[in-house]
RNA sequence: GUGGCCGUAGCUCAGAUGGUAGAGUCCCGGAUUGUGAUUCCGGUUGUCGCGGGUUCGAGCCCCGUCGGCCACCCCA
């Protein structure tokens, strides 16, 4: 064995023992979103670098130092998407989905950021993004939040709390930003290196500093709430009413500032304390200016993204994750001629019961070994097809789990009844056609 | 990008002060020539992350590097 090739740092395989939980999770999300009328959209994983630079913001950490950017063979600068909103807006504009229309969209898939990996933070990670276009009132903000709250309930997720804030209109936010920069510059002697840096990049972030030396100065800083425009203020108040009416508890965190430039007005985060430093499990907000900024006509919009790895590890910490389903039956083959007879029987049973999970022994092995495989497979029943059974046209059904009846040998015709009864299987499977 | 801890069998881990690698589990076979998870017996599994240095001798000490974890930063 020469030098082992290993996966790229921060990019991990999702193994069979975990994929059951992923599929279950994704199914809950899909059904919840569908119940609110959201439709899936699938975008490419690679986009022109410019798309992200123009939407996320030139001076954000993501664009400055975290993107996987490379040159295509024809010299174009391409980037592995670090988030989904920009691509979703691009796709919507490009395909005319946003032209004077309302759209409720969602997508799922990998995102890429070149950061130092740690728990809950990976270089390839997976998000589910939800975006709503063409609705400017707080009702859609509330819908997005209620949708997530419902999803948490459905997942059995505890341990998350909601924080909301408003950034005001883009104009109000820009004006406030100037105020703030002026204020900080007047207190430059108190600023630490980090803050000096952020003065240029994201001054609002300074408000969130953990440095105790700066606490007093920050307390005295002008507040965003005092610089809100009237309509943003009202928007925010209505959102709070809607959340209260729906019984979704929240706290207002005036220092909650999302890192991406395109946010305005409503921002929110679902946070947990159970995951260490990576406590944000779902976050989003309104981005009324982005569509226009990317070449569409002015379209109000709001959305959020949730991190699948973080949510799954939170669920795991809070009671465990579901596993992939085991086979219903394991078919053992013992003796001359049972190989081909077994294939025939398996296929016939799968025809009869489309939902049946039947694992047939392959690769030989002694009786004992097959018995052990049947047990390890997690199957409820072992079907034994040996020479004696074959000669009589019968099959032995051996229950493998506690609380089941004795084993017995039945004719192959009677087998279907036994399986249907023991496993509660449906015999028909319909293909969804109409709205059913 | 910065700092701290850690890398030994597929997995979980043991290997005082340097003396040429071990357990459990898993897998395979047998005890029980057609009855699993228990028991007993036997067997396979390693460039001790990688590269260099010190030493008669390095899993152990030193340097570098890669990777993991944790925190900072940032974010999902």
UniProtKB/TrEMBL annotation:
Catalysed reactions listed for this entry: tRNA(His) + L-histidine + ATP = L-histidyl-tRNA(His) + AMP + diphosphate + H(+)
Enzyme Commission no: 6.1.1.21
Top-level lineage group: Bacteria
Positions contributing to L-histidine binding: 83-85, 113, 127, 131, 258, 262-263
CDD domains per the UniProt record, alphabetical: HisRS-like_core, HisRS_anticodon
Class of enzymatic activity (EC top level): ligase
Family recorded in the similarity comment: Belongs to the class-II aminoacyl-tRNA synthetase family.
Protein known as: Histidine--tRNA ligase
Species, as recorded: Ectothiorhodospira marina
Gene: hisS
